[in-house]
Amino acid sequence: MKNEMDAIVKTALIADAVPNMPWEPKPADCKEVVWRHSKNPIIDLHPMPKARSVFNSCVIPWKDHFLGVFRVDSLSMDPMLHLGTSPDGLDWSIEEEPITFISPDPALGKVTNAYDPRLCKIDDKYYITWCNSYYGATIGQAWTTDFKTFHQMENAFLPFNRNGVLFPKKINGKFAMLSRPMGLGMAVNYGDIFFSESPDLTYWGKHRIVFTRGPGKWERVKIGPGPIPIETTEGWLLLYHGVTDTCDSFVYSMGAALLDLNEPSKVLYRCQFPLMTPEKIYETAGYVGNVVFPTGVIADGDTGRLAVYYGAADTYTAVVYAHIDEIIAYVKEHAWK
Amino acid sequence: MKNEMDAIVKTALIADAVPNMPWEPKPADCKEVVWRHSKNPIIDLHPMPKARSVFNSCVIPWKDHFLGVFRVDSLSMDPMLHLGTSPDGLDWSIEEEPITFISPDPALGKVTNAYDPRLCKIDDKYYITWCNSYYGATIGQAWTTDFKTFHQMENAFLPFNRNGVLFPKKINGKFAMLSRPMGLGMAVNYGDIFFSESPDLTYWGKHRIVFTRGPGKWERVKIGPGPIPIETTEGWLLLYHGVTDTCDSFVYSMGAALLDLNEPSKVLYRCQFPLMTPEKIYETAGYVGNVVFPTGVIADGDTGRLAVYYGAADTYTAVVYAHIDEIIAYVKEHAWK
Amino acid sequence: MKNEMDAIVKTALIADAVPNMPWEPKPADCKEVVWRHSKNPIIDLHPMPKARSVFNSCVIPWKDHFLGVFRVDSLSMDPMLHLGTSPDGLDWSIEEEPITFISPDPALGKVTNAYDPRLCKIDDKYYITWCNSYYGATIGQAWTTDFKTFHQMENAFLPFNRNGVLFPKKINGKFAMLSRPMGLGMAVNYGDIFFSESPDLTYWGKHRIVFTRGPGKWERVKIGPGPIPIETTEGWLLLYHGVTDTCDSFVYSMGAALLDLNEPSKVLYRCQFPLMTPEKIYETAGYVGNVVFPTGVIADGDTGRLAVYYGAADTYTAVVYAHIDEIIAYVKEHAWK
Amino acid sequence: MKNEMDAIVKTALIADAVPNMPWEPKPADCKEVVWRHSKNPIIDLHPMPKARSVFNSCVIPWKDHFLGVFRVDSLSMDPMLHLGTSPDGLDWSIEEEPITFISPDPALGKVTNAYDPRLCKIDDKYYITWCNSYYGATIGQAWTTDFKTFHQMENAFLPFNRNGVLFPKKINGKFAMLSRPMGLGMAVNYGDIFFSESPDLTYWGKHRIVFTRGPGKWERVKIGPGPIPIETTEGWLLLYHGVTDTCDSFVYSMGAALLDLNEPSKVLYRCQFPLMTPEKIYETAGYVGNVVFPTGVIADGDTGRLAVYYGAADTYTAVVYAHIDEIIAYVKEHAWK
Amino acid sequence: MKNEMDAIVKTALIADAVPNMPWEPKPADCKEVVWRHSKNPIIDLHPMPKARSVFNSCVIPWKDHFLGVFRVDSLSMDPMLHLGTSPDGLDWSIEEEPITFISPDPALGKVTNAYDPRLCKIDDKYYITWCNSYYGATIGQAWTTDFKTFHQMENAFLPFNRNGVLFPKKINGKFAMLSRPMGLGMAVNYGDIFFSESPDLTYWGKHRIVFTRGPGKWERVKIGPGPIPIETTEGWLLLYHGVTDTCDSFVYSMGAALLDLNEPSKVLYRCQFPLMTPEKIYETAGYVGNVVFPTGVIADGDTGRLAVYYGAADTYTAVVYAHIDEIIAYVKEHAWK
Amino acid sequence: MKNEMDAIVKTALIADAVPNMPWEPKPADCKEVVWRHSKNPIIDLHPMPKARSVFNSCVIPWKDHFLGVFRVDSLSMDPMLHLGTSPDGLDWSIEEEPITFISPDPALGKVTNAYDPRLCKIDDKYYITWCNSYYGATIGQAWTTDFKTFHQMENAFLPFNRNGVLFPKKINGKFAMLSRPMGLGMAVNYGDIFFSESPDLTYWGKHRIVFTRGPGKWERVKIGPGPIPIETTEGWLLLYHGVTDTCDSFVYSMGAALLDLNEPSKVLYRCQFPLMTPEKIYETAGYVGNVVFPTGVIADGDTGRLAVYYGAADTYTAVVYAHIDEIIAYVKEHAWK
Q1: What domain of life is recorded for the organism (chains A, B, C, D, E, F) (predicted)?
Q2: CATH code for C2-333?
């Protein structure tokens, strides 16, 4: 790994060091910018007695190990949020019971049918956002400092919305979020990425389009933000999912774009090509075939190494690796003019 | 009219007097709580050279006459907002050109495809809200004090949303709005009424359900708030539209509910029956058959008289009359338990 | 009327005399086999305080006047069955409250969302069948002898079924019924007519197709039996509705066929053309435009005169007249070979 | 009429004189470029015993009177082509039996389900094109010289196609046709206008787009050519239908464009606004509500007067009048830039 | 196997002993109540020259070996019923030609497009029920005593119905059947389980709901009875399929419930969780991915062992094993309250 | 291979010898008429840096090696046509850049979104036809003599059309093409095979149906021609794809028919059964699961050997082998009567 790291003497990544992050060097014959963990999927079916599957989840380094908030589909296939811990970011131990939230108002109802969490540290708090059910899908919000007590907050938006992703720091003094407003139902064939800001995480406004579906075929049906945006000297690196339709169904791929650091609704570069598409059998067959759905990332500020966590086929948790500088170079080289 | 008015010595209505409001007494044989203006529709097709039709609009008393903001479908059937004036609230003169808004930010784009306006006075400003196009339908907002200069504000919500209706005063120190989040497309078969609040009309939050579709068949498909809620000693009187489906299409009726004065997401009474359904030929046949869609109201604080303006068949502007105390009594008598 | 009646010295109709039946002679310029009552619709919107509309109903002569079981859509548009009386079969007085049924088993649930009744005398009992809700639309059954006490029976079939129409006498010792099995939902685009038999009205079997949709365009989408089949020397005269689709919606017309007296699933003649299509404004515009839906008939055994009751636009009750011998001749002349 | 005609001393119209064409001067209060015949519809329901309705048809002057090829929906609602004659172009006598065609090849099958004919004189022959059924809708073709013997030709295109409209003379030595390729089914929500050419009416090619749906809302769903293009010094005047969708259904209006005389796939001017939309009850209610569908035109080369025949609500035949020079001026003034 | 069997000294199962039934003990690491046969699928693609695939079938012990009635999809993918024999219940020899039925009435038509058979012994006869085509899908019925001559009976119900499953003995003197009425088409998104009874297998009535879709997500779209209900001291054990939808398609799982012995429409316990979901590649990929569809069971009255036969991916026949007492305990422990 | 070849002393195939064609003898245990290449797929995902996948392509022998025109789905999943070369027809080298066409008219637009090419030699020219985008999918045409310069021609038809397949020689002096007209969109559920002819490849006409979907279930949804028809003494052997629907999606199989040599719209034999269905994991799972889509064939006139190239799962290129005489015998034996 030494030589490889030497080649990247300076990284554009602005992040803390995570020297113990999960990692495998790029295989010699790999010509792409991301490469799969050799033992994917890292979480198989039935990882624990009450769970059918675990996917579309989010992880962070925590002290000398790793924590995650996971989408756990129970045996009845109903999704909930569970806490997990791992010594190495690959071997996960997930709690049997879902996270319990302290509610700010009983009128918000109980947290049920909760899925696709994102986990974001801003200043000294950890924020979880997820797809929450409140008379339709919307963005649930909660915070914790110790991963023992979780404080639910107001839902960020009116339904229908999915994939609410916070930026890891305030921008121009405001909290900032990307999301994908979208209609009722599971197979809705549209959805674009918007930017919103808030003084307090309770009231949100100044909604701006970031970008819309298309123009490439791989993302012509719907798109949505993936992991927490990654700060770099070149802008916010946004990994996102893009969806196309076939005569059969949908195909979910992972794309990338660079957004302006101070005005993230301004797109600097948007890559024409996905970084990754469903190709392995654990990605093409399962509960929902042909899905790679990135939701989490660990980034090492010292080296620019990335470990991206993604849901595979709405069934498994898997990991790909990349160097952020290679991604940035690829995005810039292949950006739409 | 004298005797009739005498019968209602005290009204629950909390509003200014509008002695010159449009009015016809209830016909002797009318057994319902609302009755149609005898010369409906008050605005026919092609009321002006550049307009195909005018409907779903909102009016207010202004000095000794009346003003309105109208949905004008141009000859090409594209909707825009136009200002109108009337000496009596019935005979309207509508400006040829759409209202021009001063934009707070070019990124919001031009106001095009704007429809179904509501007009609301809060303190010393007049606010217009409407269905605005910004990468999907959402709630546009603007204010004016003189109906000459119109200041556009931020859109209230992310798409997709329709029928944003402000309350005519702050509640618990916050601006308050009802709206109907809904998906892309014209024939979406769902939609419920939500309540949101804002410190400043820019950032909105604390979204709460008011009520959902159903349970009566007439409103089982979708519902949406109608005119600005009417303040009464019994609560906010909400007139709204409810939609059912048939083996042919949709039928839009007008319903009513009373909401808590201090916590409007709390429903005090919701009437089982619509106050009015499409029955006249100008309501059952037209651009969209079977539509009565209330969007405006003039209320006389002295007498409790109401003139409700509604779009008929997405083609005409029409008026029905009612006494607010009769409506309140009817809503309470026929409320769902 | 004398001459006209003289012309038909002998009628094929097998029925009791109903000399006081509603009747208007055929207009001189009428070239069709059915002609509308001159004061249609006979039941307009809001015929009584709690009803929005009355249609798709069934009547019988009773002593010196007439009785009917009516589909009444309440103010909330929810349908129920109501009893009605009339001195002349045209001017109807309908009870405010729905018919109450004595249930054979609480597990059948309450009769709600009940519509499109048929009324049939077999031996000394009067049977009502209707579209009943029991975990889907199915055929409700009840009997009475005095129209004061109504005894509900078992539902005839599993869901989903509509338009269950009994024959007015046993055939080969068994009760006999026509019906239209069909899927869930209001706009289902298929539906054929089947024949079933029963020893006891509780258990039904020996289901046979009578005929399917098409081949004429007017009935290519779905068909369903109309009034109780009319016994004639030429076979059972079945009046039925046939439905076509347009680029807009559905059009419901009235057709006719003759079925074998002893084996009614055997079709003797099926008329290529509908006897009647929606043409008057009360048929083309309303709650559901373009609907004529025959459900009741009064037949005079002495003269062969028929008064057919039909729902118009799912909004009104209307009547057409005909001579049964003219219909039979027309059906035979224009039958599919 | 004198003065009015004087005002148009020179017309752009290139056509033979038809002094006896149907005509009514523009009403004094009419501010639009087309005005309806005062006794519309000119063909009502059941104009003849075997017909339910007649609409979407095409007429020509013939000797001292008028001939037409009519879409006749039979009593069973199946459409066929019938010949009609009229002394004045308004009072039509239509043959009971459909036109019989001499077939060039039995493999083409019988002409059934034939509709929306156009009638075009090129040199010394009269050509009929129509929507023909051959394993899907396509463009049938036939010719006659005497309107007694009709020679069917090859279908112009593969299915699925509708509204094949010939140009009234060869262009650059080739026959020329406009058409609207479109998918299977009645409610297909797309369709654009294409131009094709042929050396011999048997083999067609060099297909070019003329224009697509939109951008105005009134024509955003589908468009199709209407009557035979009208030659003028300003280009080919194309009257066409444009269709929008509402939350209920479709609305068919009449639009206009000017095409290059020598290269008709080149659009010179396309009017932003429809010339006419469904507004009268015979246009908004019927077999298919909200339809004006122009298919025929009589043009008087001496005066520039036009009588445009259109189907109303897929139920009636109706007529509007216009001056071609007014239309041309209107189209140019309101053309999309 | 000894120890394992010892652990279950007394079984709740009420059934004959089948000591030679197919069986594999539960793997040591298996934490679930059912476990797959180690050599699944037991019937692969093209098991015989004229068959593409064999699945959704039903087996019984017969003398010293096993018989089955199989759904065989022919090379053209059209399904038919075939007889099969096996020495051990795992290695099947299936007849090349479909079963021939002696018809009670030619009007019932030939048995074609027959699928998903169930095989049930009641008293001394063996009954086959299946999804039969008679102007729509309905429940075909036949009996045999020797598996050489098969007597077709009347169809049990009107269309549309699937999955007719007889109880293996009369209840309260009547034959009893579970079924799933459902609409036309392959992807219908609803379907509940009903109970019906019959004095003679010809006439059916007293239809009662057993349970409806949901509330768990895994069965929220449709449900249907699986193998013949299994009699136990705790009630009838019903294995059934439950279907959910994803943004891609459907997922079919196997659930379980206990029904009252004397009144089977009364549900004693319904398990919140499926017993089994599609997880192996032969279940997730094939003609229809993500299907486990149980239709047959062999139960050993001595030990409580079960071998459940299920169709995998509408392509293969596979087997899972279980102990009935473990299932009963699991169902009771995880029942909806 | 010797013996096997000896068995077929005389072949019905009319074609040049291709002794070096790719080939593997039929496995001993294979009971079907086609057998898969042992190392399928021959082109895997990412065969070259700019390509995601290569499939649905067409090859020919060229000098001592092989050429092909390939559908290459780029990294963005947009399809284009690329040239490829191979020494043995199995190991392919595909050019990085798409084929550039010399356009006959700029109005035809650029060739983008081009897919499913066919390659056909007629006289001394090589013709490529493909699914081209010109305001809808239609049949693009081009010719080359040296595979260096490619001359685009007029599109053969109006949209919407797919799978245009030329015959390899003129028939009755005319060029001849099979195609599948079809509607807009990817999942259209209909499509039949038509025959058209042309004097010059520019103007096409005399369109005739060849055959329609069904009657077997495997091809009941849509069908389309596959490789260039193969000339034999028994008629044109047409390999084609047939599509069925399941409750999940579509399944694409390969079928066969023999067409009259002089009048190819006349079907001599149509096989009831597909020759091949999706069964291997590379056929059942991928970008579009359950697809075998034949588009190319190499035929050896000396021996009757065939190598059929097909797209697998819209992801891979694969090959099956067959003897033409076995196919002909099979088709005739199993033909629909």
Answers
A1: Bacteria
A2: 2.115.10.20
